[in-house]
Write a structure and sequence with these properties.
Elements lengths: L1 H44 L4 E10 L5 E12 L3 E13 L2 E14 L5 E11 L4 E11 L4 E12 L2 E11 L5 E4 L3 E4 L4
Antiparallel strand pairs: 1-2, 2-3, 3-4, 4-5, 5-6, 6-7, 7-8, 8-9, 8-10
Length: about 190
């Protein structure tokens, strides 16, 4: 009788230890998986060099000129930044001169060259000149604007469509390259 009573409690203890061990292993695995999932969510959300909803001030070509750009998303790099959903203005002597918008772009910190791509719109504040293009490069060092692919410039009564446009920063001296179409409309 002693043998029957000995095996039953021993069997219950072994089964209990197995159940407790299985429970702790399952709990440990669940906690470890949860920590990994939280870490991967955080890394997917934003790395330290990424930013959201930021306003950048970038020195311009003139002494008192600068870009004030509102960036929805971006990533800072060692020598520049990648920008997404860009809207902003160019100021000279604290007065807005241009308004700009674009889907994507980059900025080079050394040269302050701004390259914008996809649905680029550059216009004067008074809407006297409106430039739309697929790609625009604003180079303050050479004081040049370069626009490529699907370029349209509307100024006064003139509408110009061309492949490439090279201009000074005021859009006064314009050089057109490639297939060009000019439409002149008289004022009514």
């Amino acid at each position: 009788m002693f043998k029957k009573n000995f095996w039953l409690p021993a069997l219950i203890i072994v089964i209990s230890l197995c159940a407790i061990t299985a429970f702790w292993l399952t709990l440990h695995n669940a906690l470890t998986t949860r920590k990994t999932a939280v870490r991967s969510e955080q890394s997917q959300e934003q790395s330290p060099d990424e930013f959201q909803q930021m306003t950048m001030k970038i020195p311009g070509a003139e002494k008192n000129g600068y870009w004030e750009l509102n960036i929805k998303n971006g990533k800072s790099l060692q020598d520049g930044a990648i920008l997404k959903d860009i809207e902003g203005q160019y100021f000279s002597d604290k007065k807005p001169i241009y308004q700009i918008s674009s889907k994507n772009g980059t900025i080079d910190w050394k040269t302050r060259t701004l390259e914008l791509k996809n649905s680029v719109l550059l216009k004067t504040v008074d809407n006297s000149k409106i430039l739309t293009t697929t790609e625009l490069i604003w180079n303050p060092n050479s004081k040049k604007i370069t626009a490529r692919q699907g370029v349209t410039l509307k100024a006064l009564e003139t509408l110009i469509s061309t492949d490439e446009l090279f201009s000074d920063l005021t859009l006064e001296q314009v050089e057109l390259k490639g297939m060009t179409k000019v439409i002149y409309q008289r004022a009514k």
